[in-house]
Each structure stands twice: as structure tokens, then as C-alpha cells.
From TrEMBL, chain A:
The organism of origin for this protein: Poseidonocella sedimentorum
Protein name per the record: Sarcosine oxidase subunit gamma
From TrEMBL, chain B:
Positions of the GCVT N-terminal domain: 622-891
Ranges for domain Aminomethyltransferase C-terminal: 913-997
Protein name: Sarcosine oxidase subunit alpha
Alphabetical UniProt keywords: Oxidoreductase
Domain of life: Bacteria
One example GO MF annotation: sarcosine oxidase activity
Family named by the database record: Belongs to the GcvT family.
Domain FAD/NAD(P)-binding: 172-424
Residue intervals of the SoxA A3 domain: 524-606
Native species: Poseidonocella sedimentorum
PANTHER family: AMINOMETHYLTRANSFERASE (PTHR43757), AMINOMETHYLTRANSFERASE, MITOCHONDRIAL (PTHR43757:SF2)
One of the GO BP terms on file: tetrahydrofolate metabolic process
Length: 191, 1005
């Protein structure tokens, strides 16, 4: 979602960390196998419902699998009201939950060849390219707080956390990307 | 005396000298030295004093097993006690101090202890300091504490300037140990394509094999090491990390390892250590073996070392342990030390082989070099105190009659080898006794099992109890292939090697030297060097009935020092078994627990220090609060403003001012931390009827209702206001602390119990900033903001409305926790600060006053509103708090209903909510108990109630309190006695809990 704006940027020894603003985020809960949900996702971002742990990208936005009955839609911040309206017809009369969560979250990007190393220092997840790559999303923790990450393309990881811990997350990412060591695990040639 | 030889030392770089200080004296070493090798090269054979007897001690080993060579490293903020010199690489300018001596290393008063060691046998402390009882705290404990501990603790105000980090790795195969076994196992497993991580604790690959100068395929074993290393480098799926020690194996394939980075970079600009948290499908333990000492009198005199350690110092670092070294052994490996010394031009006056039959091919080689080899002999005692002067030799089979004294300045001892089974054992791997090696090794039939019931740890090579280079390579290849097969992969074929190894004679166990040593000799034969445990101590423990190995360990402290008995364990077990007259396997071992070697606290903490110690949650207005000088208090992980002092104002005064502002004018509060959970679906009403004690499903759209949530056990858990947003949509407000756990509580019930109900929830707590505007002038402020109609007619008490307020898209709730006219305004969090600013501006004419959590508490207490966590403590039910009105009795069920019907819950004697008003107007101590007549069975005053909230009420000008009192509401007007700590009792009258505005007129504005 490159349409989002950048609040700040930190060029660390290992990676560039940026805090992004302006990303519209909609939570959609429902039975992911139904036409209602499929239709709503299509109406919002023109994409299909993603498979487990996948995230789909398109010109109108993105849609991420969050749990067996929850999706996260990423749309330009300015469009979120219109997109919600567009989703209502297919959802009409179907049990679901649709909520704007744009303000509840903070978004960061970690960019550079070492982005996997930077995040593997603070997240207990397998970031090996065999296990995690473009088009995938993981929900776990970073440091001591909940976080989700996904990859739109190689060398760029987007991280999502709650707004209230954005200060902590910014410090954590800056520390991991800048002021500590370089594990060089995912790029052994750099070690 | 020890000295650096003119040539040699495969690990040091003589072109790069390094200087360091030991007890203030400048010493020199080379790049590649350990602190131990550099100290030894400088002639420093005396390194410290022992823990109990303050005996002079020098190096025994050359690696992680070292018990004596500990120093205080660094100064000031970087001081670290008990640093192992044998595993610490030398860097320029290091500061070392020896430990556990007073006043100096050379002369130590505590050493007087050892003049009368009979005063300090096993269990001395347990037996001596038990009487009189009162002496323990004031006399014995301070003395023991002063004399205990090895190194000095860093200053309490010291702050470690180094940084540390964690790293999470997920691999198919983790190989621990970079000796030939580990290298070969990694090669075979790596060829299968599996993700392999190989870690080695030292900076060097190849382990012991290289030092034993063995020949493989006609060339030195170093070439084989390089060959395998090159093959591993070529595999993209294999990573190798040196200076990384595996310290613990846990369930589900979790392995902790510590990587030392300090040697790679200057100390302050990168992490010093990295804690690896590795998830491995399979773990291969290739940790080799440790040599055991022999137990003879004076085996702790500086200069007596493990034969393998002497070989290491000689070959790796070019350091001679002394000019004349006597070798004493029960196996062939120590002959290699004698031969190496001799070929380096040093003198070996004798090899004392305790075996009557002597050694194999290596013994012949030694004899050919002109070394005197004595079979069936041992050491009766070592001559010398602060350094070895010689040895008195005797027949191993005898009682120690001295046959001859041989002058020497070093002794190389070998009591055989023990496989390093620690990591195998951490997660439940069992051991078997190997009679031939007289050692415990892994029992391959009882490996640690993973979640699937299949083994997930394998031992390879010497760690697997396999001896000899050829056998080790074959075993490692077998294990590598087996592990690949468990991952449904195919490993590489074993490599074919020709090894030119001398034929070895079998070792013979020697647990005491000489075998018939009398009490005097046994009392100087040390098992545990660091904790000063001798053969006689273990025998005494057995004699006194400590037959269990775990009990004997704790009674004698054998193996309880920082080295965790790496050298003493098996020798101690053997002595205990002998004293108990049972075979060693029957005695068993003590438990091997992680970590294998001590970790720094810094590496455990990782990045979590300073500003990252703990996350602090911030509301959208946090920066404003802090800029305004708010005094904040922790509420969960939030820091909520407690009050906003103005100028020199005290917190107390600030709170009073804020309370008065709300009562008389208007105040504003950041309530963004309150939980906001959206509950939606056809069954949402039914679901909330079960969650709350009251009935929520009947709530009209646009209205709000206060509700209570209880646990299954009936106890009050959370409270708050529910707003009905639509036919199937409710917004649940929780307490600040309840936001996450009430959401989890909801999901728990929905996912496990009522999985077929059509309800979805979403925690929207952080989506909204929420601001309370409260006070008689509150509506004026909202009207000044302009926009939506907030009149009594349009927005009566306990309703909500959406609209534009001052240009913001807002949802306004007409609810009150202060007892005043009050609005709570919610906007998307990103607009929170702008709304806050707008309200401040709109309220300027009314001197709108930001108030904090303490004013909030006072306001609600004045009005008699309960607070979760004050009036509740997990044992209080709503009925105790007079909240029966919030319970829908006619409902068939709600969570907690059944529990609330139990006899104890309906007991009229329960403590129930009342107001408490002191006779003299003072403030009751929070938490104080109301005493009753008589005493309980423990001789304490009976009690009949307690204070749950207590404040000074600025509105009423006196102290007010809420409390729980036995049959409270029935006893209005009674006066209770509340003792104060260290003062006269406070007397308080039972009154209504509603102190202010009992008719609730103010709420209507």
C-alpha cells in the first residue's frame, strides 16, 4: 500500500524503518466461504478471499487473512467510507461484522536486504524464505506486544500493531535495525 | 613455572600482542589467547582462593569445565564477577582481578580455615549454626554472608552499557558442537537439503581431534576439518556459527544458545551477546567429552592440571605448564600429553600409570622417547602449597606408603573421560552406564521425545559414548543420516577414511588414589575444587545416611558451584557408591538442568531494558498530558494522568481543585483507555444477557445501560455501560484493565461453549479517543463546540447519539461516573488530540479543567459508585455491593447465577457495602479493618469489615470511605473501630454509601 504517507523514517545500519500513516483498514468477520463475504471483498478491493495466512494485493487495495473467520481489508484512507458502503449490498441480511479499525492500528515498514534479520530478532516466527515470503501474513508478537507482518515484495516487510504501542514499536524497530548487532542469518554472505 | 615457549601455538597470532592487567599488574598475551592461556604464559599459576578453605588455586582445565580460574572482569559498570578465564578470549586492555581472598592473593587470612579443615566437614553449617535460634539472624547469617560468594557483586547503581539481543531461528536440524562429530553429522544431514544450523562454543572448529595430532587419510586431521568446513560452506541450506554455545534443550524442539559477539567488534557499538531461540525439528548433540581429575591428596595445588588441558595450552597457545611435568593416568590419552611435552623439549620425569598392566602403543612410544613409565603406581600426595614442588609416589594398590619423591613443577592427571550428556539429558534423555569407559553415556533407547512421541534429540560421536576418531566419524555419519531419515529426507553417504590410530589399552576406573588411602589423604583429595568438597566429605555424607545422590549433593554442596560439577560429578558418584557398597548405575546421577554454563542476565533480557524494558501504552492525548506536566500513574500498561498539578501545587491540592471544578463548573477527562468492544449478530442480545447479570437484550436502540459481568464462580469481574447501536449491534464498554481480558472472555465462551450462536466481536478500544466532559457547565461547553443537539430532550441521561460536534464526526454518550451532568465523546483516535484542543478552547469561558484518575475516584466515591479493583477483589459478588438492582432475577441464566445461589453466597453474614464516616472528619486508612470483640484461634483480633476506598472529599470537606461490613446495611448509625498502624484507632459511623446528591439531581444538570 504505497499510497500511504510516511510519518517518519529511520535509516539504520541494517534496514530502513518507516512509520506510515493514512492506510485505511477494515475488519470483516464472517464465514469466509460464503458468497456474501466473497462479494464484499470483491466490491471493496477487487480481490478474492485469501487462503489461510495469505494476503492478496491489487490496484484497489489488499485483503489479508487474519483468522478462520476474519479478514483485514487495506484501502486508501480517504476511500474507507465509500468502500464500506460498496460492501454493504452483498453483506445485507448476512451475519457479519464490519468495522473501521484504521485508527486502532499503527503501520511500519522495514525495508532492505536485512529486513528478515531485523524482524527475526524481535519476533518468534520463522522468517526463512521457505516459510515466509511475498503474499504471506503472520500474526505473532514483536518484543512484548502483538503484531502482524506481511510481505508485499522481497526486502520489504510491513508490520501492524496497536496504536497505543506505536511508540514502543518504533523504538523497538529502530533498535533492532540500527543500534545492535547483525545476525546476518538470512544473508550469510554479509556475516 | 609456566611460560610461553619460543615457538608454537596453533591458535595464537604472535604478530598481534595484547596487553591486559591482572590485579593491577600489566601482563601480555597474543591475539587468539584465552585469559587462561595468557595468564599461564605470564607465569601466573596462582589465580584465586577456594570458596571454603581459601586454599590457593590455579587452572585445572582449559575450557567450560574450569572450576578455579574465575576472575572479576572489567570495572565499574562493566564489572562481571566469576568470569571463566578458560573460555574468555583475550582483548586489549582487559582488567582482571582475582577473587575470594583477603587481604591479598598471596597472603590470605581465610586460609587459616584450611589449617583445621576438620572444623569444616560436610554439613558444618547445618550442624553448627542451629543454636541458639536468635543468633541466626544477627550473628551467624551476617558472618556467613560476608565470607560466602566468590566474586564481588557489581555496584547496585551500576548500569550495563552493553547491548544484547535475541534471535529466533527455525531449522530442521540443529547440531550442537563443531568438533569432527558435529561437522560430519552436519555434512551428512545437510546433504539431504534440510535446513541445518551447526553451532560451536569456541572460536575454532574441529574440537579435540586436531590437538591429538591424529592422521587421517595420510594427512593431519586439520585438513579433514577444513575439507568438511568447505563442503558445509558450499551448501546454501547449512549455517555454521562459532562462539555459540548451546545451553539448554527444552520441549517442542526449543534450544537456547548464546553467541558471544564481543570478540568480533568493539564493545559498545554492537550487541555483546546474542541469545538464540532455536526451534529445531531434530537436535544432534555432538558435545564431546570432558576429562576427569584423579582424586589424590593435594590434587588441588596450583600446577596440578588435567592432562588434556596441559596439551591444549601447549599445542594451541604455545604455553608450557612447567619445566618438569609428572603425568598420572588410568588411561592411554594422557600419554599424548607426555609425548607432546617431550617433543616440545620439556621434561617428563615420569608417567605414573595406575593400571598394573600399563598402557598400549602410546606407552611404547613414550618409552621410546626416553620417558620413565611406571605401571601400577600413583601419587600418594602432592608436595607444595602455593605451587607444585614434587610428588610422592606410591603403589596404586596400597595405602599410600611413599616409595619415592619426584621433583616437578606440574602434574598432568587423567581419570578418564565422561561424555557431555547435559544437553541430551535436559529434556528427559536417559543415561546408561558404560563399564568399559567407566562413564555414563546416552541410552539411545530412551531419547528425549517430541510431541509426536518420536525422538528429537540424538547424540553423536564421543558425546554418544563412542571413542576413537574412526568410530566417531562413522557414528556421526550414521546419526546424520538417521536424523535426515526422520525428516523423510536422505542424508549423504559416510565418508571413507583411513585413520592411523595407535592401539589403546583399556582404561581402568580409579576413583581414589591410592585405592586404600587413609583418612588424612582422603581429607586432602578434592572432588569439587570450586566448592571445596573432598572425598572424606562425600564419605561422611553416606555415613550420616544421605544415601540419595540428590541429598548427598545438597548436603556436601558437591557440584553446586558455578561449574555445576562438570569435573566432580562422576568422581563424587563413584565415591558415594563405594561408601554405600552399591554399583554406580544404582546410585545414578543428579539431574542435568539448563543452562549448561551460566548466562549473563543481560543476554536473557535482550533488548528489554531502558525505554524498551516494558511497553507503555499511550492514548492519542498522551503527549499533551505530559507536556501539561501531568503526574501519571500506571494503570495496566497505560500511564494515566493522576492529576495535573499547576505550578508548585501539591498532588493533593491538584486533586481537590480538579474535583471542585467538576462539581462547580466543568472538567474534562481522557477516558480513551476504557475498553470498547463491538458485539454484533443475530444472537448478540442473547449473548450479552448471558454475559451480564442484567438484561441487555431489551435495551432500545440509542440507549445505554449499566451492567455487571461475573465469573463462572459468581464473583464480580467487570462493569460498564452498554450502548445499543442497532438491532444486532451493541458497544460494550469495559474498565481500562478489562478491555483485553473481557474480549478474551467473550471469545472463550463464543468459541467453546456457544459456538453455534451467531455473534462476532471486535475490540475497538484503540479505534476511538474518548473524552469525558463533566460538570454543571458540561452542556454549555458542548453547545459552544456547536453542531449536534445535546439538549436534555434530544439526549437524555443514558442515551447516545451520533452527529457532528464542533466539526468532528462524534458519538456522544450521556453517561456519568461522577454524578454530574456528563457527556462522553468518542471520535476516531487520530482526531483525539484535535477534539481535546477544541473542547479546551470551547470550555475556556468556563475555566474547563482537565482532571485525572484520582479526581475521578473521589468523584465516584462521593456518589457511592463502586470501582472494580477497589470494592472488588475477586471474592466479592454484586449482591455484596448492593447492586441487586443490576441483576435480572427473572433471567433463566447468566454467567455466575448458579454460583451466586450457593449457601455461602446468600449467607446474611456476608460483608456488604456501606459508607463510613469518621467521627472526627479525618480520612480512614485505605484497607483498614474494623475490629470486633474477641480473638480468633491465632490470637488475633476478630474483624467485622474493612475499608475498600477512602478519600478526602473536597465537596463535603471531610473524609469519606466505602467499606464492606458484616450485615452492613442493617447496621446504619453504628460506630466501628478501625485501628491505625502505630496510632490511635479511628472511629467511623456506618452511613449510606451515597455521600453526595442522593437524589441524583446533579446528573440531570
Amino acid at each position: 500500500m504505497d499510497k500511504a504517507g510516511e510519518m517518519w523514517r529511520f535509516d539504520g545500519a541494517l534496514a530502513r524503518v518507516s512509520r506510515m500513516a493514512g492506510m485505511g483498514m477494515l475488519t470483516l468477520r464472517g464465514d469466509l466461504a460464503t458468497e456474501a463475504i466473497g462479494g464484499a471483498v470483491s466490491a471493496a478491493v477487487g480481490l478474492a478471499v485469501p487462503q489461510t495466512r495469505r494476503i492478496g494485493f491489487g490496484p484497489q487495495g489488499a485483503v489479508a487473512w487474519m483468522s478462520p473467520d476474519e479478514l483485514l481489508l487495506l484501502v486508501p484512507g480517504a476511500d474507507r467510507a465509500a468502500r464500506q458502503e460498496a460492501m454493504r449490498p452483498p453483506l445485507e441480511g448476512r451475519h457479519h461484522l464490519l468495522a473501521d479499525v484504521s485508527d486502532a492500528r499503527a503501520v511500519f515498514t522495514v525495508e532492505g536486504p536485512a529486513c528478515r534479520d531485523v524482524l527475526a530478532k524481535i519476533m518468534p516466527v520463522d522468517l526463512d524464505p521457505r516459510a515466509f515470503g511475498p503474499g504471506q501474513i503472520l500474526r505473532s508478537r514483536a518484543g512484548q506486544v502483538a503484531a502482524a507482518i506481511w510481505m508485499e515484495r522481497e526486502e520489504r516487510i510491513t508490520l501492524l500493531c496497536f496504536r497505543s504501542v506505536a511508540g514502543y514499536m518504533g523504538e523497538l524497530l529502530k533498535t533492532s535495525a540500527g543500534e545492535s548487532g547483525d545476525p546476518a542469518y538470512f544473508r550469510p554472505e554479509a556475516g | 613455572m609456566s611460560v610461553r615457549l619460543k615457538t608454537g601455538g596453533r591458535l595464537i597470532d604472535r604478530s598481534q600482542p595484547r596487553s591486559f592487567r591482572f590485579n593491577g599488574r600489566v601482563l601480555r598475551g597474543y591475539k587468539g589467547d584465552t585469559l587462561a592461556s595468557a595468564l599461564l604464559a605470564s607465569g601466573q599459576t596462582l589465580l584465586g582462593r577456594s570458596f571454603k578453605y581459601h586454599r590457593p588455586r590455579g587452572l585445572v582445565g582449559s575450557g567450560v569445565e574450569e572450576p578455579n580460574g574465575l576472575v572479576a572482569l572489567g570495572t565499574g559498570d562493566q564489572l562481571e564477577p566469576n568470569q571463566r578465564t578458560t573460555t574468555t578470549e583475550l582483548r586489549e586492555g582487559m582488567e582482571l582481578r582475582s577473587q575470594n581472598h583477603w587481604p591479598s592473593l598471596g597472603f590470605d587470612i581465610g586460609a587459616l580455615n584450611s589449617l583445621a579443615p576438620r572444623l569444616f566437614p560436610a554439613g558444618f553449617y547445618y550442624k553448627t549454626f542451629t543454636w541458639p535460634r536468635s543468633f541466626w539472624k544477627h550473628v551467624y547469617e551476617p558472618i556467613i554472608r560476608r565470607s560466602a560468594g566468590l566474586g564481588p557483586a557489581p555496584d547496585a547503581e551500576a548500569r550495563d552499557p552493553d547491548s544484547y539481543e535475541h534471535f529466533h531461528a527455525f531449522v530442521d536440524v540443529l547440531v550442537i558442537g563443531g568438533g569432527l562429530a558435529g561437522l560430519e553429522a552436519a555434512r551428512v544431514a545437510g546433504a539431504s537439503g534440510a535446513r541445518v544450523l551447526l553451532i560451536e562454543q569456541t572460536a575454532h572448529w574441529g574440537g579435540r581431534a586436531a590437538k591429538d595430532e591424529q592422521i587421517v587419510n595420510g594427512s593431519p586431521v586439520d585438513n579433514l576439518v577444513e575439507e568438511i568446513r568447505a563442503e558445509l560452506s558450499a551448501m546454501g541450506n547449512v549455517q555454521c556459527r562459532s562462539r555459540t554455545m548451546g545451553v539448554g534443550v527444552y520441549d517442542h524442539g526449543l534450544v537456547l544458545a548464546v553467541e558471544n559477539l564481543a570478540e568480533n567488534a568493539s564493545i559498545n557499538d554492537a550487541a555483546r551477546q546474542r541469545l538464540w531461540k532455536i526451534r529445531a525439528g531434530q537436535v544432534i548433540v555432538a558435545t564431546g567429552a570432558l576429562e576427569r581429575p584423579l582424586s589424590f591428596a593435594g590434587n588441588d595445588v596450583p600446577g596440578v592440571m588435567l592432562a588434556s588441558a596441559i596439551r591444549d595450552y601447549l599445542i594451541d597457545f604455545g604455553v608450557s605448564p612447567g619445566d618438569r611435568t609428572v603425568v598420572v593416568t588410568n588411561n592411554d590419552s594422557a600419554y599424548r600429553t607426555a609425548i607432546a611435552l617431550k617433543t616440545h623439549g620439556l621434561d617428563v620425569p615420569a608417567i605414573l600409570d595406575a593400571r598394573a598392566g600399563g598402557g598400549g602403543a602410546l606407552a611404547q612410544e613414550a618409552r621410546a622417547l626416553g620417558i620413565r613409565v611406571e605401571a601400577g603406581r600413583g601419587i600418594a600426595r602432592v608436595l607444595g602449597g602455593r605451587a607444585v614442588r614434587g610428588v610422592a609416589i606410591c603403589a596404586q594398590a596400597g595405602e599410600g606408603v611413599v616409595q619415592e619423591e619426584i621433583a616437578c613443577d606440574a602434574v598432568a592427571m587423567s581419570g578418564g573421560w565422561s561424555p557431555v550428556v547435559h544437553l541430551w539429558s535436559h529434556c528427559g534423555g536417559k543415561l546408561r552406564w558404560d563399564d568399559a569407559a567407566a562413564a555414563f553415556g546416552p541410552d539411545v533407547d530412551k531419547a528425549p521425545l517430541g510431541a509426536d512421541g518420536a525422538p528429537f534429540v540424538s547424540a553423536a560421536g564421543t558425546a554418544n559414548g563412542v571413542w576413537g576418531l574412526g568410530a566417531v566419524l562413522a557414528d556421526s555419519a550414521r546419526v546424520g543420516a538417521e536424523v535426515a531419515a526422520r525428516l523423510r529426507r536422505e542424508g549423504a553417504a559416510p565418508r571413507s577414511v583411513e585413520i592411523d590410530a595407535p592401539e589403546e589399552a583399556p582404561m581402568e576406573p580409579v576413583w581414589l588414589m591410592p585405592q586404600g588411602a587413609g583418612p588424612k589423604l582422603r581429607a586432602k583429595a578434592f572432588l569439587d575444587f570450586q566448592n571445596d568438597v573432598k572425598v572424606s566429605d562425600v564419605q561422611l555424607a553416606a555415613q550420616e545416611g544421605f544415601a540419595s545422590v540428590e541429598h548427598a549433593k545438597r548436603y556436601t554442596t558437591l557440584g553446586m558451584a558455578t561449574d555445576q560439577g562438570k569435573l566432580s560429578n562422576i568422581n563424587g558418584l563413584a565415591i558415594l557408591s563405594d561408601a554405600l557398597g552399591q554399583p554406580i548405575p544404582q546410585t545414578g546421577t543428579t539431574t542435568f538442568r539448563p543452562p549448561y554454563a551460566p548466562l549473563t542476565l543481560g543476554v536473557i533480557a535482550g533488548e528489554a531494558h531502558g525505554s524498551l524494558f516494558q511497553p507503555v501504552r499511550e492514548t492519542p492525548m498522551q503527549a499533551w498530558h505530559e507536556a501539561r506536566g501531568a503526574y501519571c500513574e500506571p494503570v495496566g500498561q497505560w500511564r494515566r494522568p493522576y492529576c495535573y498539578p499547576v505550578g508548585e501545587e501539591s498532588h493533593e491540592d491538584a486533586v481537590r481543585r480538579e474535583v471542585r471544578a467538576v462539581r462547580e463548573g466543568v472538567g474534562m477527562l481522557d477516558a480513551s483507555t476504557l475498553g470498547k468492544i463491538l458485539v454484533q449478530g443475530p444472537d448478540a442480545g442473547r449473548f450479552l444477557d448471558m454475559l451480564y447479570t442484567g438484561r441487555i437484550s431489551t435495551l432500545a436502540i440509542g440507549k445505554c445501560r449499566y451492567g455487571l459481568m461475573c465469573s463462572e464462580n459468581g464473583f464480580l469481574m467487570d462493569d460498564g455501560v452498554v450502548a445499543r447501536l442497532g438491532p444486532e449491534s451493541f458497544l460494550v464498554h469495559t474498565t481500562t484493565g478489562g478491555a483485553d481480558h473481557i474480549h478474551a472472555h467473550m471469545e472463550d465462551w463464543l468459541q467453546t461453549e456457544w459456538w453455534d450462536w451467531q455473534v462476532y466481536t471486535a475490540n475497538l478500544t484503540e479505534q476511538y479517543a474518548q473524552i469525558v466532559v463533566a460538570g454543571p457547565k458540561a452542556r454549555d461547553v458542548l453547545e459552544a463546540l456547536g453542531g449536534m443537539d445535546v439538549s436534555e430532550a434530544r439526549l437524555p441521561f443514558m442515551t447516545w447519539a451520533e452527529g457532528a460536534l464542533g466539526g468532528f464526526d462524534a458519538r456522544v454518550f450521556r453517561i456519568s461516573f461522577s454524578g454530574e451532568l456528563s457527556f462522553e465523546i468518542a471520535v476516531p483516535a487520530g482526531q483525539g488530540q484535535a477534539l481535546w484542543d477544541a473542547i479546551l478552547k470551547a470550555g475556556a469561558d468556563h475555566a474547563i479543567t482537565p482532571y485525572g484518575t484520582e479526581a475521578l475516584h473521589v468523584l465516584r466515591a462521593e456518589r457511592g459508585f463502586i470501582m472494580i479493583g477497589d470494592e472488588t477483589d475477586g471474592t466479592v459478588i454484586p449482591q455484596d455491593l448492593g447492586l441487586d438492582w443490576a441483576i435480572a432475577r427473572k433471567k433463566d441464566d447468566y454467567i455466575g447465577k448458579r454460583a451466586q445461589a450457593r449457601a455461602h453466597m446468600v449467607d446474611p453474614e456476608r460483608w456488604t457495602l456501606v459508607g463510613l464516616q469518621t467521627i472526627d472528619g479525618t480520612v480512614l486508612p485505605d484497607g483498614a479493618y474494623a475490629v470486633d470483640a474477641g480473638e480468633n484461634e491465632n490470637g488475633q483480633r476478630n474483624v467485622q469489615g474493612r475499608v475498600t476506598s477512602s478519600y478526602f472529599s473536597p465537596t463535603l470537606g471531610r473524609g469519606i470511605a466505602l467499606g464492606l461490613v458484616r450485615r452492613g446495611p442493617e447496621r446504619m448509625g453504628e460506630v466501628l473501630e478501625f485501628p491505625r498502624i502505630g496510632g490511635a484507632s479511628a472511629m467511623a459511623r456506618i452511613v449510606s454509601p451515597v455521600f453526595y446528591d442522593p437524589e441524583a439531581e446533579a446528573t440531570d444538570g
